[in-house]
Design brief:
The structure is a homodimer of 118-residue chains. By secondary structure, chain A is α/β, with parallel strands linked by helices. Chain A has a single domain, classed as STAS domain (Transcription Regulator spoIIAA, 2-Layer Sandwich), CATH 3.30.750.24. Helices cover 47% and strands 19% of the residues of chain A. Chain A has a 5-stranded mixed beta sheet, with helices on both faces. The interface between A and B is medium-sized, with 20 and 20 residues. Chains A, B: It comes from Zemynaea arenosa.
Chain lengths: 118, 118
């Protein structure tokens, strides 16, 4: 497992994070995603973390950085599928996902991105 | 990692397989997926295997079985994102994905499912 797949849905890209992120995987994801935003002319990125039980500061920072990169390339990022326990932990640890909007699930995330782009 | 996330997109469900399947994970996926088909009244299932470099007979059978279960519940299954090397290996090994339709990517898969349901 050396790459996280990026799925294209119209002008949106969907990334499902299922495995523990480590440095190299995070770097590869950012490389791939920025490349795909340009190549596919994507206007939005959905990052699904419904499979993650834990979001630590490393993953949080990785998500924030990825969103910042996407933003520079004119694509908005929405984080979807966060588990309740993850939301609790994020607040308790004082971690903020700077510059990242969230939605309950992929459908809501798509709706949010469509509204912004209209 | 004990669950593969299932994403809902309209009346379709999307499963992205990123990790090596083992018995328990495959069983959990089939349980979850059949449950979600009923709960969400899904008409189609997209299984993305773009992250898989290898599809062996175990994964092949798991995909076929999952598609058969979905079919009984009145949902069609489309396998998307197969890597060229995987297609070569499947044919060389004589593995057939019985009852499973394939599409190049998620977008094409969605189109295929929409046509069938019209």
């Amino acid at each position: 497992m050396d790459r996280i797949p990026i799925l294209k849905m119209g002008d949106l890209l969907l990334v499902t994070i299922q495995v523990d992120m480590h440095d190299r995987l995070a770097m590869a994801l950012q490389d791939d995603l920025t490349g795909r935003i340009v190549k596919d002319k994507a206007r939005g990125v959905l990052i699904d973390i419904s499979a993650l039980d834990i979001v630590d500061s490393f993953i949080g920072r990785m998500i924030s950085n990825t969103a910042a990169m996407a933003r520079i390339l004119d694509a908005r990022t929405v984080l979807v599928g966060m588990q309740p326990a993850v939301a609790i932990t994020l607040v308790e640890l004082g971690l903020t996902l700077h510059g990242v909007r969230t939605a309950l699930n992929v459908e809501q995330g798509v709706k949010l991105l469509r509204q912004q782009n209209d």
